[in-house]
Amino acid sequence: MRHVRINRYTLYLALLMIIFVAVLPGCGGGSGGDSPEAAGGSSGGGGSGTGESALSVTSTIPENGAVDVPTDTAIEIAFNEDIEPGTVSLSTIFLHSGNAAIPGKATCSEDRVVFTPEHPLSQSAVYTARVTTGVKDTAGIPLASDYTWKFTTMGQTASSAQSKWAAAAAGESHVLAVKTDGTLWAWGCNASGQLGNGEGGDGTHAFDRSAPVRVGQGADWAAVTAGQLSSLAIRDNGTLWAWGRGTPGDGTTGLNVFPIQVGSDHDWSYPDTGLVHSFTVAVKTGGTLWAWGRNASGQLGDGTGGDHTTDHDSLVPVQVGTDDDWDIVAAGKDHVTAIRTDGSLWAWGCNNHGQVGDGTGGDPEDDFPLSAPVPLEPDADWIAISNGIHYSLAIRSDGSLWGWGYNWHGQLGDGTRISRNVPVRAGSDTGWESVAAGWDHSAAIKEDGTLWTWGSNNAGQLGDGTRDERHSPRQVGASRNWVAVTAGKYYTLALQDDGSLWAWGTNACGQLGDGTRDERLTPVTVR
User: Fold this and answer.
1) How far apart are CA 263 and CA 223, in angstroms?
2) Rounded distance, CA 275 to CA 68, Å?
3) In order of start, what are the domains of the chain with their CATH numbers?
4) Which of 62, 150, 363, 411 has CA atoms 20 to 30 A from the CA of 471?
């Protein structure tokens, strides 16, 4: 054995090093070294190879495997040594839900680091937290190895679960709905983060939900609309929020798995989002009309676009003209229909199937784009509209129902499969009160509370127990207490006056919200 002699100079140097380390400021100014774990290590094991104790995690809040964690929780990590503040950042501290990174703020104080999520976490969701070796103590010693742990958030609260449904909007394969207590819920496809619960967005169906999940913690949501890959909602204070994949209107493009506010205005009243292309149209409380997103077919209505390029797209809202008398607006795949306060009907955008309704178009080889609003019909007595993929439906003040555009599946309801480039009446009935155009099927409610459907029925989306296509409206069941209806891609949802929500049709992504992925040919209740 070789003996090592320590001379007095070496001893003096060692004492000076100990004193220097002892007086170094800790993370946040603490002195450190007093915790019972200071002399030991935890996950990550081993030392630095020079006799120094490795930096390690001693505990976390929530702890690994915790369940029923509150959705407003902050992530706290305790170490065996004080932490150097400069090493704590969003590049060394992570929180994930699936493949989606959760935005937030990381701070430290002495031997503790806190990650505060920017938004409340989603309910009944599994989260993964990770601290990397980029975190170092005040002596420059890094964490021995990455430290990872998981926890699960709590489910919905009883009060929200017992609250009734107030409104719903069907997108391509996902649904948004508001309850009477003002809470916002979503279910169905989440491949593009369109549920807004912090999950998904990875292009897969791993984070689809077949039962409603709550979006955030707010209880002040007033209106919702859903598109193909994106979602929009308005709060009671008139602010507009967007999430999913596309052009939210905040000057950016891309993915948002949480709702983000569109600008700072507090006067939004009526939005709608494109069913396929990423564009949005919305009315403000003062009656002005705004649009943003894709403009390849002139669907923004500002007199530009229509050239099949992205040159005239807009990442922020642009006003459609200068008029301030717009009342209701509806977006299709790439065409728009709107009603003014005087009851006049207007349309613009793609017109390859005559969906603008001005008597032009109707040639699938040429979309006949109209990049600014044009009036339809001289009569100003329109009260309700809804746009499908390539067609439109509208109701007049006398209760008559009209349709125009693509009609291959009989979705116009006029008893034929002939596409129309001007409005044609759907039968001779009156008493129509509200209408919903889906991808290629339609639904409407009469003043007597009865529900009617027609068009494509390949997945049972007409709700009549068959898969038979219908070219004229046919009543769904015998109930007379329906108050609202919305149609997506091969599925339908409708609300009854007791606050119950019903769904039917395709269910591959769980968009019926009944807790299954089973296709339904007749209405089932949303959980």
Assistant:
1) 17
2) 36
3) 8-153 (2.60.40.1220), 157-266 (no CATH)
4) 363
pLDDT at 15: 43
Q: Which of 417, 409, 467, 413 is nearest to 435 (CA)?
A: 413
Q: Are 244 and 230 in contact (CB under 8 A)?
A: yes
Q: Note the pLDDT tens digit of each residue in 88-108.
A: 988 889 898 776 788 888 988
Q: How many CB atoms lie within 10 A of CB 466?
A: 13
Angle at 87 between CA 86 and CA 89, to 5 degrees: 95
CA pair distance 243, 455, nearest whole angstrom: 31
Q: Which two tokens stand for residue 223?
A: 């209106």
Q: Which two tokens stand for residue 30?
A: 């603490």
Ordered strands of the 66-69 beta sheet: 66-69, 147-153, 126-131, 93-97, 100-101
pLDDT value for 362: 86
Secondary structure (H, E, C), 380-425? CCEEEEEECCCEEEEEECCCCEEEEECCCCCCCCCCCCCCEEEEEE
Q: Is 308 exposed, middle or buried (0-12, 13-18, 19+ CB in 10 A)?
A: exposed
Rounded Cα distance, 372 and 378, in Å: 18
Residue 462 burial by Cβ neighbours in a 10 Å radius (0-12, 13-18, 19+): buried
Radius of gyration of the chain (CA): 29
Contact 312, 300 (CB under 8 A): yes
> Can you read off the two tokens belonging to residue 427?
């039968």
In angstroms, how far is CA 404 from the centroid of its own chain?
30
C-beta separation of 423 from 357 below 8 A: yes
Three-state secondary-structure class, residue 491: strand
Contact between 416 and 410 (Cβ < 8 Å) = yes
**Which of 454, 505, 448 shows the shortest CA–CA distance to 482?**
448
Q: What is the pTM of this model?
A: 0.74
pLDDT at 102: 87
Per-residue pLDDT band at 52 (split at 50, 70, 90)? low
Phi/psi region, residue 312 (left: phi>0; alpha: psi -120 to 50; beta: rest), is alpha
Q: Which residue is listed with tokens 């001289």?
A: 378
- Which residues, other chains included, contact 449 with Cβ-Cβ below 8 Å and sequence gap of 6+? 479, 480, 481, 482, 483, 497
Residue found under tokens 């983060």: 193
Q: How far is the C-alpha of 332 from the C-alpha of 470, rounded, in Å?
A: 22
**pLDDT tens, position by position, 439-454:** 999 999 999 999 999 9
Contact 317, 249 (CB under 8 A): yes
Q: Which two tokens stand for residue 282?
A: 């919305």
Band of pLDDT at residue 160, cut at 50, 70 and 90: low
Q: Rounded distance, CA 456 to CA 458, Å?
A: 6
Does the pLDDT value for residue 16 go beyond 70? Answer: no
Q: By three-state DSSP, how is residue 158 classified?
A: helix
